[in-house]
Amino acid sequence: MQGRLENELKQNEKINKKMENVPDYVRDWYMNLKASNKTSATCKDYINKILKFLYSINSNICDVKLSDINLANTQKFFISIQTKEVNGEIVYTSDSYQQTIWCCLNNFFEYLLMKFLVLSLNVTSGNDLPELNLTVLAFSMLFAYTASVLMSIREYNLLLPIWDTVSSLFGTILSCNESYA
Asked: I want to staple 97 with a disulfide (CB 3.0 to 4.6 A). Which of 66, 93, 164, 178 is the partner?
């Protein structure tokens, strides 16, 4: 008989195997997920969704740089998840499926935004700055687009607290250094 701990350890082993072939920023994000006490099942689900997103940008996920993530490929990804093939027939995916992907991407983008904020305010971390080529404007555009997707699936009330947080972060970044806008 296997207990919960044994199952968690097996899940973690599978996740760690996947983490061998991903960019560093995905591994860092995974560590953030683990630190926030997400279950192994949630981590695995989120990682699969992010890898699917990155794969939609470049089939060699290791080559996807943060600067490759933009509004156009995020929109393309959201369009691609609106339908799926079932028994040779194209059908719409459920609102809940689209919402789980939005939540996952939102978590990922929030992590990247926080990483960007920390690096932009901490001059001793200058070594990592060239990799973070996404501007505050690019993040806000990505967030606005994902917000519009969320609103289109009628989950507006979930958006408000997230939007307040992100808006205040953008304000902090812009007030600290106008050159990041």
From this structure: 93
The residue with greater pLDDT, 70 or 46, is 46
For residues 27 and 43, the answer to whether their CB atoms sit within 8 Å is no
Nearest to 145 by CA among 81, 74, 82, 97: 74
What span, in angstroms and rounded, lies between the C-alpha atoms of 135 and 146? 17
The pTM (predicted TM-score) of the whole model is 0.65
Q: pLDDT value at position 117?
A: 58
Tally Cβ neighbours within 10 Å of residue 149: 21
Query: Is residue 173 within 8 Å of residue 120, measured between CB atoms?
Result: yes
Please give the angle made by the CA atoms of 90, 94 and 99, to the nearest 5 degrees: 130
> What would the 3-class secondary structure string for 11-44 be?
HHHHHHHHHHHCCHHHHHHHHHHHHCCCCHHHHH
Residue 36 Cα distances to 6, 111, 120, angstroms: 20, 12, 23
φ, ψ (nearest 5 deg) of residue 92: -75, 145
